[in-house]
Amino acid sequence: MLADKSCREFIEVLASDEPTPGGGGASALVGAVGTALGNMVGSLTEGKLQYYEVEEDMERLIDRSEELEKEFLELIEEDEKAFQNLMTAYKMPHTSELEKAKRLAVLTAAKSAACQPPLRIMKRCCEAIDLCAEFAEKGNRNALSDAGVGVLFCKAALQGASLNIYINTKTLADEEYAGKLNDEADRMISEYSAKADSVYEKVLSSLR
Questions:
Q1: CA contacts within 13 A on the Cβ side of 195
Q2: What is the DSSP string of 70-133?
Q3: φ, ψ at 115 (rounded to 5°)
Q4: What's residue 173's pLDDT?
Q5: Please, which pLDDT band fits residue 21 given cuts at 50, 70 and 90?
Q6: SS3 track for 140-167
Q7: CATH architecture, domain 20-207
Q8: pLDDT tens for residues 100-133?
Q9: What's the Cα-to-Cα distance from 188 to each of 129, 185, 203, rounded to whole Å?
């Protein structure tokens, strides 16, 4: 399990000629780290007397952050499986017309399936950016920088995952479906990159 490797092991295999993990798995990991940094702000706020007014908010944010962290780690594995299935499809024999037709059908399905993990990573990143924004607004002022770093990581993961969608939709036979996936990715990039930038600028202005 990739998510069970040590940081050193994960980086080493990422830098190797192994096909997985790649950009999708790395994006999921970065999303988990960004979410955890936001969660750190919550942990440093929860139970503090001076922040009693946001105690319930912190409990809610922490609970959801923990769920997202687990989902991001699961998506590392899902992205790997989807990519491996895609590579298997590419390696199918395609000499005869029958083989070509079978390979095309399997390859089309595999490309479509390979878009799903990064699409989910993007959706979770959007939610994580929302959480980091709220942590930055309500959380412990002494940990404000962590919320800022967290939102930057989540933005990077959002944009990184989008590339894993675009590289597959570019060659999808179903152009209408590809267009819908691209439009959804475009929307999330536009809306949540701007939101992440806004949170970062607010954090930066508070620290400088």
A1: 22
A2: HHHHHHHHHHHHHHHHHHHHHTS--SSHHHHHHHHHHHHHHHHHHTHHHHHHHHHHHHHHHHHH
A3: -80, -20
A4: 83
A5: confident
A6: CHHHHHHHHHHHHHHHHHHHHHHHHHHH
A7: Up-down Bundle (1.20)
A8: 999 999 998 999 999 999 999 999 999 999 999 9
A9: 11, 5, 22
